Amino acid sequence: MYRWCTDEVEPHDRFDFWREVRAQGLFGVTVELEPERRANFFGEFSLRRLGGAGLVELKASHYTVERSVTDIAHAPGDSLCVYQQLGSGAWFGGMRGSDFTIANGSFATSHTDQTYRATPLGTGGFHLRILKIPVSGLSMQDKRMRELAPRTFDDPGLKPLLDACFADLGTVAAGDDGAADAASLVEALAHLALIERGMLRAGSRLGQAALRTARLSQARRLIARHLQDPNLAPAMVADLLGVSVRHLHMLFESAARSFSQTVTDERLNQSRRLMREAPDRLIADIATSCGFESVATYYRVFNAAYGIAPGDFRAQGPEGR
Which residue range or ranges hold the HTH araC/xylS-type domain (predicted)? Predict the structure, then answer.
């Protein structure tokens, strides 16, 4: 993970450095801001490499952005981009087709080497995530991908799947297993974008694989959201996900942990976090808040997983955990 912000540069140089080094060098765009507003400029971003792809999260003060023909010639990308808008929204224009706005929580996609102009809608500036996926690394190859001008996702059914995949990309563990999970999520997001743009059928082999990956991510998010509910069960999650119970179990068959194992592990992890964060909280209260049906069940499951009782785990203190 690489992080950078304008605090590392002298105030009078911050916007010029952002424009000439970060915007041009890293993103291949031209940015502009009125001279009288540059003294208060702030920008920060993080970049995480996910195989050949890159996930960027960017926050910055209000300014204008343009990806021009000259910018493209200077820094061609040949990548598919999926954008997640997190701030107050933005306006896009200057490309083929209609101008559009993208609201907080919405998604858009484009090929990197298409012209556009953009500016935030509100005074808060930019806040978004950008997943940049090289076209050459995709399982599907179609020359039409290079003609994809920026456009929002119109299918409301895809939004929760995109939300879940982006959330998982932000938390996927390091290491070999994490790398495999990240690669699967990146490919799923690319193929969901191509389904949205009409270039890939949802019922195709690649389309079905993308939907399975995304639904598994969403199922895990639903489990985490409803951990406190002692009635958390496959039927409940399947209903929220809009699939059958059989289909839900099939999603978890390809994962390292079954549905029930995932629920138990999440509840145990949550209980350990609560014991660290609230050392005076009653263990019985923690067990209940994590959805265990009884304190006895919690003690039995905790001891089976870690070979130690919850009270002894807490007594070790932070150094022993």
Answer: 217-316
161 three-class SS: helix
Q: Which of 127, 152, 177 is the last residue of a domain?
A: 152
| 275 contacts 310 by C-beta, under 8 angstroms | yes
Among 152, 187, 205, give the residue marking a domain's end.
152
Binning pLDDT at 50, 70 and 90, where does residue 178 land? low
Number of domains in the chain: 2
Confidence of residue 256 (pLDDT cuts 50, 70, 90): confident
Cα angle, residue 62 at apex, residues 58 and 68 outer, rounded to 5°: 75
**What are the φ and ψ backbone dihedral angles of 28, each rounded to 5 degrees?**
65, 40
pLDDT at residue number 174: 44
Is the residue at 106 inside a domain? yes
Structural domain span for residue 291: 260-320
Tell me, yes or no, whether 146 and 279 share the same domain: no
Using CA atoms, how far residue 112 sits from 115, 126, 245, in Å, is 8, 18, 40
The mean of the pLDDT values for the chain is 90
For the beta sheet containing 30-32, the strands, ordered from the edge strand earlier in sequence to the opposite edge, are 30-32, 64-67, 116-120, 90-93, 100-102
